[in-house]
Amino acid sequence: xxxxxxxxxxxxxxxxxxxxxxxxxxxxxxxxxxxxxxxxxxxxxxxxxxxxxxxxxxxxxxxxxxxxxxxxxxxxxxxxxxxxxxxxxxxxxxxxxxxxxxxxxxxxxxxxxxxxxxxxxxxxxxxxxxxxxxxxxxxxxxxxxxxxxxxxxxxxxxxxxxxxxxxxxxxxxxxxxxxxxxxxxxxxxxxxxxxxxxxxxxxxxxxxxxxxxxxxxxxxxxxxxxxxxxxxxxxxxxxxxxxxxxxxxxxxxxxxxxxxxxxxxxxxxxxxxxxxxxxxxxxxxxxxxxxxxxxxxxxxxx
Length: 302
Description:
The radius of gyration is 18 Å and the shape is globular. The chain is of the alpha/beta class. The model has no long low-confidence stretch (mean pLDDT 95). The protein has twelve helices and seven strands. The protein has helices spanning 25-37, 57-71, 86-99, 116-130, 141-144, 150-159, 173-183, 199-204, 217-228, 232-250, 256-266, 284-297; strands at 8-9, 78-80, 103-107, 135-140, 163-169, 189-192, 209-210. A seven-stranded parallel beta sheet has the order 1-7-6-5-4-3-2.
């Protein structure tokens, strides 16, 4: 398989719902349009930021359909098929093929911890074998608790030519990025995550792209462009503008989706910031802090 040219900023989309928690298709489409206008190089619906684990299989398919229709070929759509069951992940991958997604993103089966490497190889390998789409492996050790040794990436890439990319997030992100560059240079593209918390370090180490939240994409595009051009001071200055928001995001476990959606609502992209339970609402202090951060950012409304 010819590897896809995935690089740049591929935001992880929120799953927009109305005030009753029902999927808001119009809101999803508006979010896609806004991200493309902000300079996104691709979009990623249905991954952790999209709270895929709170939606039924049919709803997850509807999320993809709305995204593909809204993107309309303007940017690649990488669809999250992560599931605790391999067969169900494959069913979502088949839907992605049928509906015109450009690739899929698959995470390890988050309830299967032992033996870790065998489970990862079998689960991700079966998904790769079942689809002709290029696959991004989402190595989210902080979310799954499953450690993936970099040699596992090599084993999967040797066996499956459509393993095209790896998304790294968690405590070992930078070490794993170095290992990939050393052990399998050029064989897969590498993206960072974690709401672009480590974007400067990842860019400096040669990452191909970043998958941030889908609400401040224009700011991330600016940081990434400066960092990849070697404008260190410019990138650091742009990141300093972003840092208060990402610090609040990572300091608010259980409320991250609310922060993303409140930011999109503030920008006039979506009408409600409702998220399904379980969740931990932002504290009054956190809400006040977010409001001030958004005012300080001087964001242009959509």
